[in-house]
Amino acid sequence: MAVTKEFRAFDSAILADRLAFMAIALFVTYLITLLASVLPVRLLDTDWQLRFIAACLDSATIPLVALGLLHLAAYLDPDNPALQTRRDTLARLAMVAVIGFLLIVPLQAFAGWNSVVSARTNVARQLSVANGTFDLLQETITTATSLDNLQARLQAIQTPSLGIRFETMGLPLPETKRRMLARLQEVRKEVVTRIEAPTPKAIEAVVRDSLRVMLSSFALAVAFAMGAQRKGSDVPLLVEWHTAISLRGPRANQPETGGLLGLPLPGLSSGPSEEEYFSRLVPEEDDDSSETGVPPPA
């Protein structure tokens, strides 16, 4: 029986080493993928922000699985101090991932909103430039005093891309102006039609994608919080948060009674330790002498 237990412990240690090696490989793979996607860094660029968020989320399950494998390896081989230290170190680093994924939520909201605003701003700028050019052409044609003057002024503006150019058609100046102004209006309508603001469907797609990213980021933050652990703590970060929120109930907010059941919150005051705190939450056993008046036998 003792030999069997030794072999099982040996097999567990080998499996733990394998899982730990796989976990490190997954972490390295994720870092390489992330760096390849976000370099060069452009923090103020909306496109870079969206690309960074996508890179973080697309492969986020890789470090999450790696963290779980490392926890499992440490559980299988509790007598391996190097493995325990590695698990504790990465569990503390997982707190950075928790904060990072929580920060992605407002970052994605800002990037999505900024992309819509930028598109609208770009449309407004293009319309302003186009309208300015068409107004200048219209004024040039209207105020021309002769055919030679009209030709010279149009050549000075140099707008061949708009299709507005002077052609000698043997017509008098008023008729030439009328035809050119009619052509100008046609080109103006075509240009304005091509410059379109973001459609409601495009905005809806941005909103839908932003919600997907924000909800996924929050879920990943919760998952990493379950694998993260503060230094000196015996429970995961998520359990700590849940306990703190539970203890800060309606009765805990009453200044007259302090924390839950009138006791100070553990870790937040100089009162009793956590063990003493939770022991005081458990009701004491009934004293036999309370009913008979006779002390219990020794």
Offer a concise description of the structure.
The chain has helices spanning 2-38, 46-58, 61-76, 81-142, 147-157, 173-194, 200-227, 237-247, 274-281, 289-292. The protein has 298 residues and is mostly helical.
Task: Please provide a written account of the structure.
- With 298 residues, this protein is mainly α.
- The chain has a domain at 123-194.
- The protein contains ten helices and no strands.
- The protein has helices at residues 2-38, 46-58, 61-76, 81-142, 147-157, 173-194, 200-227, 237-247, 274-281, 289-292.
- Helix 4 runs antiparallel to helix 7.
- The relative contact order is 0.08.
- Keywords: Membrane, Transmembrane, Transmembrane helix.
